[in-house]
Sequence to fold (265 residues):
Amino acid sequence: MRGLSLALRRHWPEYLIEAFGIGAFMVSALSFTALLEHPASPLRALLPDPLLRRALMGLAMGATGVALVYSPWGQRSGAHFNPALTFAFFRLGKVAGADALLYAAAQLVGALLGVLLAAQALGALVADPQVRFAVTLPGAPGAVVAFGAELAISFGLMFGVLAARSSPRTARFTGLVAGLLVASYITFEAPLSGMSMNPARTLGSAGGARLFSSLWIYFTAPPLGMLLAAETWTRLRGAQSVHCAKLHHENEQRCIFRCSYRAAA
Fold:
């Protein structure tokens, strides 16, 4: 408890940023889902092809993620906005245990508050069955396929982040890599699992929709996938090749992680 209290006193700005960031992501997710999927939306009538609508949704959410990573606040906190990502960096020795727990708590609370804010602003639009708070649910192939798909895309995202972060020449593009992966996953993978990769993101939507039946998939597969990616990277390249837990480090913001980025650069 003393360690958590000390971390909270020292690093509370970063925790607030993480809560704000995932909250902003959820507001964006619900807003664009309503714009693209609500039956009364002119854009949905204009775009009857579900694949095209998913592609636009992917672009919107990928761009939202990129904007958050490169924003001054994202530069400060490291722009995780995802407990699975934070715990993978904890496994790699880059995040202290107290920070990992408080980051995850902030991310979960921030996602719920973001959905609450979007619901207040958009009203009945987000409660419509075609929007349903942008909830992530298994697709037609079922829960087992959804679990496997979430495991695979979470592995891919974490491995892509680590690959980009492994060299100072490519590190500045990490946010772009993550955004492109999010966009492509929403476009092509979403019919299998709803495309979450993020327990906080799924909890926020589930809380708004009061729909918790498949929550176990999104609380297990993304952390397992990202931890597996961290383990695979460690065996291939070694933990020392991971210099920091920030997705964007080319800035003057303080770093609260176990960081060796400057020395590597």
Summary: Residues 119 and 157 are 29 Å apart (CA to CA). The first helix runs from residue 2 to 37. The mean pLDDT is 95. The chain has one domain: 2-264.
